[in-house]
Amino acid sequence: MPKSRIRKKADYTPPPSSKQATTIKLNSRAWVAPVMLAMFLIGLAWIVVFYVTDGSLPIDQLNNWNIVVGFGFIAAGFGVSTQWK
């Protein structure tokens, strides 16, 4: 049986472009990681200070709501983390 001819395809070459390729940074998200870590640390510090001072600090009038404030900072840190790309 005769061998079939192999078709040779030309390699793709993109058309020449008159514009130079530039990378445009549309969304600068460099602020996300520092803000996220800061919120986590503030929330953790708030809760630790509340427990170490037996509830007299950071804000005495809030009593046990200081824990909610600390977890609020931590939750805000998680909210900021959704912006990280």
How would you characterize this protein structure?
It is a single chain. The chain has 85 residues and is mostly helical. Helix content is 45%, strand content 0%. The relative contact order is 0.16. The mean pLDDT is 85.
Produce a short descriptive summary.
This protein has 85 residues and is an all-alpha fold. The protein has helices at residues 32-52, 65-81. The protein has 2 helices and no strands.
Characteristics of this structure?
0% strand; single chain; mainly alpha; 85 residues
> What Rg do the Cα atoms give?
29 Å
Largest sheet: none
Averaged pLDDT = 85
Helix and strand string, N-terminal first? HH
Give the N-terminus to C-terminus distance in angstroms: 59 Å
Portion of residues in beta strands equals under 5%
- Determine the structural class based on helices, strands and strand pairing: mainly alpha
| Overall spatial form | elongated
Q: Which bin fits the share of residues in helices? A: 40-55%
Q: Runs with pLDDT <50, length 5+?
A: none
Number of strands: 0
Provide a count of the helices.
2
